[in-house]
Amino acid sequence: MLSKAVTTRWSAARAAATIAGTSWISNVCVPGLSIQINEVEGLLPFTCFQKNFEAALRKSFVGRYEQLYGRGSALPGAILEIVVCRLRARALTPQPKLVRSKKTSRAIPKDAVRKKRDIYWPDLKKRRQTVVYDGERLLTGNSVSGPAIVETSDTTVVVPPGAELRLDELGNFELAFRGD
Fold it and tell me: Which of 1, 95, 106, 148 is deepest in the core (most CB within 10 A)?
């Protein structure tokens, strides 16, 4: 018998499981049994939790456990514990509308250039004063030769010596390496 707390939590999650394109995955084990230390992950055999889901869960667990560890190893009458329960859901999303930049410039804006930093470059085997750029202020068509650093609010792009970074019309950083 599953605990009342687990049953209550699963009942609360029941509505989410009725969305098309979902699958429930659980890890189940026999609690407190020192010789049974293996959790079994498997798809739950239903898409919506019913009040009598325990029998189907037990059958699924015993079948999968014995498939993995041998016939009779699952202790079919033992109490089961749900260790983890995950819901994987899939949904259609609208295709994003890509907006191409109309403004193009080869000249890097002055406010895109930050203070230089002393950075060690393994390819050069030395430290070098390196230009750091604010990537959010670069414009379509801007090109940065390495060594350089381009920073944005959520990432940092390292442009090593001999490489070139270009900002394309969709706002992507394209990194090209010479000599490859």
Answer: 148
